[in-house]
Amino acid sequence: MRGVTTGVLVLSLTALAACSSSSGTRTFQTQEEGGFSLFGRGGGGKAKGSSGSAPAIGVNGYLWRATLDTLSFMPLASADPYGGVVITDWYVNPEKPDERFKCTVYILDSRLRADGLNVAVFKQNRDASGAWIDAASAGQTETDLENAILTKARQLRLSNIG
Q1: What's the pTM value of the predicted model, to 2 decimals?
Q2: Tens digits of per-residue pLDDT, 16-64?
Q3: At residue 161, does pLDDT exceed 70?
Q4: Over the chain, what is the mean pLDDT?
Q5: Could you read off the pLDDT of 81-102 as tens digits, one per residue?
Q6: Who contacts 110 (Cβ-Cβ below 8 Å, separation ≥6)?
Q7: HSE of 111 in the Cβ direction (CA atoms, 13 Å)?
Q8: Residue 17 contacts by C-beta under 8 Å, 6 or more apart in sequence?
């Protein structure tokens, strides 16, 4: 029995050691030259001194940063830089406490393009009993958010070029 326990322990330690990496720290950067790193301004498409093996986010870095900046007034529920999905939590405007909004943004491309972005806005109204009821949001709201994100992404790109 002691031999089996020792064998399992040795295999577990070997498997654990195989998971370690001696290549140092890795950064997540955009695929576009001169883009942003995941958590701020980056220096380009590849980390300095790397052989290209560092993982890159699968979406355009400018659209990613612009989305987070544009929706920064709403609480963030989830952000997936690999899948390009940003989901906010419900936001209640203090001036209109009887309605709330939630947004989901899909970044569909690694290039900075107008059709590489899709925004979905969900709205709820509070009824007389205090329960939240789904309501239709204005279609223009989604278009306005898309335009704001695209404008911010263009500004970020231009400021990074110059």
Answers
A1: 0.66
A2: 555 554 444 443 434 344 444 444 444 444 444 444 555 666 789 999 9
A3: yes
A4: 79
A5: 999 999 999 999 999 999 999 9
A6: 30, 31, 32, 58, 59, 60, 116
A7: 3
A8: none
3-state secondary structure the chain: CHHHHHHHHHHHHHHHHHHCCCCCCCCCECCCCCCEECCEECCCCCCCCCCCCCCECCCCHHHHHHHHHHCCCCCEEEEECCCCEEEECCEECCCCCCEEEEEEEEECCCCCCHHHEEEEEEEEEECCCCCEEEECCCHHHHHHHHHHHHHHHHHHHHHHHC
Cα separation, 36 vs 38, in Å, equals 6
State the amino acid at position 87 in one-letter form: I
| Token pair of 54 as six digits | 């560092």
Look up tokens 């720290």; give the residue.
25
> Which neighbouring-strand residues pair with 86?
79, 105
Tokens of 71: 């929706």
Instruction: Name beta bridge partners: 88.
Output: 76
List Cα–Cα distances, 90 to 69, 96, 123, 134, in angstroms: 17, 13, 9, 12
User: Alpha-carbon distance 33 to 39, whole Å?
Assistant: 16
Question: Phi and psi dihedrals of 142, rounded to 5?
Answer: -65, -45
